[in-house]
Structures are given as structure tokens and as C-alpha cells.
Amino acid sequence: MTSAAEQRAPAGVPAAGSGQPAAVNGARRAVPPVPAVWPGAPTPLGARFRVGPDGVAGTNFALWAAGAEAVRVCLFDEGGRETQIPLTELTHEIWHGFVPGVMPGQRYGYRVDGRWDPWTGARWNPAKLLLDPYARAVDGEFGLPPEVYGHVRDWPDQSVADTVRDERDSAPHVPKGVVVHDDDDWSDDRRPKTPWADSVIYELHVRGFTKLHPGIPEELRGTYAGLAHPAAIDHLVGLGVTAVELLPVHQFAHEDHLLRRGLRNYWGYNSIGYFAPHAAYAASGTTGQQVGEFKRMVRALHAAGIEVILDVVYNHTAEAGELGPTLSLKGIDNRGYYRLQDDARRYADYTGCGNTLHVVRPQVLRLITDSLRYWVTEMGVDGFRFDLAAALARSMHDVDMLSPFLAVIAQDPVLRRVKLIAEPWDIGSGGYQVGAFPPLWTEWNDRYRNAVRDFWRHALPDVREMGYRLSGSSDLYAWGGRRPYASVNFVTAHDGFTLRDLVSYESKRNEANGENNRDGTDDNRSWNCGAEGETDDADVRALRRRQLRNLLTTLLLSTGVPMLVAGDELGRTQRGNNNAYCQDNEISWLDWSLLEQPGWRALYDLTSRLIALRHRHPVLRRRAFFSGRAQTADGLRDLAWFTARGAEMTEGDWYAPAATLGMYLSGRDIPGRDERGAPVVDDSFLAVLHAGEGPTGFVLPGPPWAQRYEVVVDTSAEEQDRAPGTVHRAGARITVPARTVLLLRVS
Q1: CB-based contacts of 44: which residues, under 8 Å, 6+ apart?
Q2: Catalytic residues
Q3: Considering the entire predicted model, what is its pTM?
């Protein structure tokens, strides 16, 4: 009896590494003559067009593949004919060679020979064409037919299927890398370089933001060029945001379980090419044109004063676990790139996606940092948000804030200067690390999200948590030189309910995802305001809009860096779907017609007004934590908290149930100086947040806090231009309507 490892695919399929011409649909095709290959250089990695010896133009190919026995670069012409060129030079585990005459636009891939021994983690299979990890453009889209799997996917005994090597050629079924020539020095670009404390982040999806925009030409919708269009940029500028945080734009693949259900990965958290802009978002072409189109988008955003932050997924790849496809790293050096279990057939999975990159290994760390530097220096981006960043901070097993990844970032002269945002958790043991990342980093603060949602649905047992979150989360970040802007405050993100759905649904509606509503979180901390889903009840609809105003106002008045999600300012709905990762359709795309509806237009106007208020007043975007202590003889403090009685809160008040909270922000005691060295002085404000279901009285604090109070924002009003301007004397007892935020300027 033969072992599973000795078993092979059905007869008639050419043996991997046989050297015979590949058979496609049963017919052999001629292999063109092999061109000359010169030794070339081991650096830089990837395919780099340059002028070689004697002024001959060509491309240098360099691939790290430590355990491989042979590497061939495979060139493809327009008809799909393949030319295989052996790379015979090996320097420091890098296979390399210079091929004269290979010009920009050339499509290519690799075949890598080596042992097939899954029990030790060795999964080399030269029948599989592999994407260059350093490919800077990708032509074609990943489908997942059986031929792209390194093992026989439909082997009768699935318990050992991953150990049976599949000998079929995958080249006709996979995208190819593209040689790109890049001589752009960015000398004409001016980065906005917005300080962290002044930033307002807007999370958006390139395709979803532009797909239905009526002001963008139809041929540009859903693309980088569409986002660069004046109609798109005008909305961002009008809103007042300082940075867009783009959902993943690295080349990604669709998962098999989605393709089988007729769906696609919309969000893009399934990367396979860390240097290539996702080709499907390009209007100009996919044989290198996507690179220039992406750069023009960045330039256009920079010219409008808007930074570009990329959401990046370096924790795992689209190759999944042992039953996943062989697309790139798995076939180059599986043991070198991925974390494996003690049983090396299996992958360590801290991501929930089947695999985890082994960032402790130097070559993997190099791949990631080379990619990051490339996007900064050659593609012009201004920062990164790291998906499941705790997985990158793991040493051998545990999350380690002294890990190689964090250490390298901290000392890198390029990367330590850009914006770095951690999603500070993964799904592994000890993976929740909110507040633990080192001072260079900011973090998505989900404790802010939870507290604000709970306060406005009146579900907090007391107001202690809310006090910390409104004032910059000093309990999490006031250590090691960290500042309030270490907290990226958000109420919603791409993952979960939209803001409108947060006040319209108490249960998720994910049936369209095809998983019987099992996917997506059940911990939404939402409140439907009295009716589930869409309703014609005018009172419920009005209450929902008020709750949206409350949530947005709270977010934009809080100390820290606010992050909005594209469309929340318009009242965008996903119809209750809180996990729309596979909905590349109207469920996810922005409905721009909402701006034509008075109720939703008013929400946009309020949002832009609040952002403008934040930009004008440094007291709302402090660079240092509040002290809470009196700075002058009159006893006025930089931050004070008041009950509805107008009295300063005592320790007992913090522990008591409450629906009302008053927060006084002094503009007289702002630490630091402006660019000319002068003290920073601003207006002072009193914010009153009332989450109760009925109105309440609130006594406005008297001297030394104020003489008078002028209403600046009143979320009980649908149209904000009617609310501001009312003046109250200090000591007056005012009525705060149910579920309302009042912002009052002190005089």
C-alpha cells in the first residue's frame, strides 16, 4: 500500500518539475527559446527594471526561498505562452538573475522546486505558478479552481488530502505579476503632515465610496481615479476631515466559500500582494497602470490637504491553512513564512483566517517593512492602520511589546515618522492589548466605542467609564509619554452596524451573507428606539435622528482622535447587516441620494459644523491630558465635572447611576505653546450630555466657572441653525430635553 504522500493526481496530468511542456486542456503548447540570464543582484527583492551591464535594459529578479532546490522565473506573452528561465545564482538564500530585454509591462511568476513533505511543513510544488511577494502590480484575478491548490483538493480521504500533491499546472488559472518601471521622485507632492491632535479620520472603501456618486463619471466609479475626482474630494473637504483611512487596497483574493455562494470579498482583508494596489480598483488598466493611478489619487488628496492612511493586513494571507490554495508564500517557503504548530502540517492561527505570518523570522519582517517603506516612499501614503496588530507583536507565542516587529518600526527612519494605528487585539490567548502598545503608536479604542454606545442607550451602571472616554482615556494611555491622541475614538467602524443601523436594529440581519445569520457579532450594544428596522412611525424616526446627532456630537467633542465611517454623516444603512464583508452591492455602497433628503442633509451639516468647531478650538483637541487641578487662585481647573444640580461631582457621584453628565473644558489652561512660542488660549465650554428618556433640569455652574453661557450646539433641534445663540446666565436652571447634548460657550 502506498502512503498518502506517494499518491498522485489522476493519470494524464504531467508530473511537477518534469521539464515537459505544460498541457492546457489536453493540448501541449510550444515553449519559446529560453533567453539569456545574467547573474544579476540579490537586492532589491522583486522584479526591478533597470539598465544592466553594457547599457542593456532588462529586469532583475530576486526571490527569497531558503529551502528551495531550484527557482524558475516564468514569463508570459499576450497569448499566455510561458517561457521558463532558471535562476541559478543563490546569495544569502536569495535566488536571483538579470534577464536582458524584459521590459515594463511583462507578466511573470515563479515556479519553485523542493521537497513535498507536509508532515515537516515542506509544501514545494513546481506545478503551481506563484505570485512574487514583491510584485508591484498584478494582472488578473484569483479564482480558486482545483488546479490552484498544491494538494489534491477533492482527494477521497479528506483527512489526508493536504498531504497528496496535485500535479496540475496552475498557470492558466492565476494572475501574474507585472514588471513596473518607477522613476517618480514625488518632488511635486506636498504632504499635509497634519499633527495627530488635529486629525479627523474618515474610514472609507475606495469602491463603495465612489460606486454610486452621481458627480463622478460612470467609467471612474469604484476606482482610485474616482476617489481622485473633484466630486469625491469636494465632499471630503466640505466635511472637514483631515485623513482618509482606506480599507485594504493591497492585492487580495476572494475566499473559496464566498465564490461557491456567488459572493466576493468586498472589504479586502485577504491580502496576497503587499506591494501591489488592488487591480480591480483601477480604471486605467492592470498591467502597471494601476500604480500610476493610485499615485495620482494620493497627489489629488494631498493637494486638498487630506492624508492617506492604508488599512493593512500583514497578519495573514489569502492562502489560508493546510487546505487552502497555493498562491505565493506557501509554495515559496511554507516553513519560512508561516507560523506552524508542533504538528507542522497545521498552521498556528491567531487571526481566524487559517494562517499567521511568522513575523519573528527576519525574512518575513523584511517583507513587511519593505512593503511599508515602499508605500510611504514610492506610493506617497502617510500612515497605516494595522489589522489585528497584536498578531504582529507576538514573539514566539505571547504578545510582546518588545517584539522584533515593534522594535524595527521604532528605529526605522521612514516608518517611525508616519502615522501608525494599531487594532490592538487578535483572537489568540492574551491577544486583547488595548492601551498596551508603545508610545509611537495610536490605537483603535473599542472601550470608547462601548462606553458611548452604552451611555446613549442608558445602559451604563454609572458614569465613571464615560468620564474617562470623553477626556482622552488617561487610564489607558497616560504612561510612557503617550498623549490623548493615542486614542482613536470611534462609535462605528466598517465591522459592525452603521451609525443609522445602530439606532434602528437590536439584532443583526446577515442572511444575505449565506451563513444563516451565524456570522457577525451579537454584542452590538444597539437600541432600535422602539421599532425593529425601518419604520414609518414619525416619532421613532425623529428619535433615531436625534440619537445619531448625539452620537456624532459626543464623538467630535471628545478628547482624542475621532474616526468617522464613510456614510454615517448621511444616514447610510446596511439594512441591519453587521458583517457586510461580502456584500459588493448596494448594501455596502454609499447612497448619495440621501443628501437630497432634508433630514439626512441636516445630519451632514451638523457633522461638518462640529468638525469645523473642533478645528477652530484647541481646547477640543488637546495635546496633553487634563490635570483636573486648579491652576490659579480662583480655583478654576482645566477639567471639571458637574451633576445636574450644578455641583461638582463627588466620588460618590461617579459610582451612582446617572443619565446626565456635565463636562467643563477650560480654554485658559491649555498646556503647550503655538508655533511662535506663544501660550495657547481658547474659549471655555460646558458640555451637558443627557441620555434620560425625559427632560431634566440642569443648573449652570456660577463663578468662577462662568458669568454667562451661550448655546452653540443643541442636538434636540433637527436644524442646528435655529439652536445656537441662546444665552443663559450662570446659576440658571435650564431644561435639557430628553436625549440631548448641549454645548455651551462660556463667557
Answers
A1: 62, 134, 370
A2: 387, 423
A3: 0.94
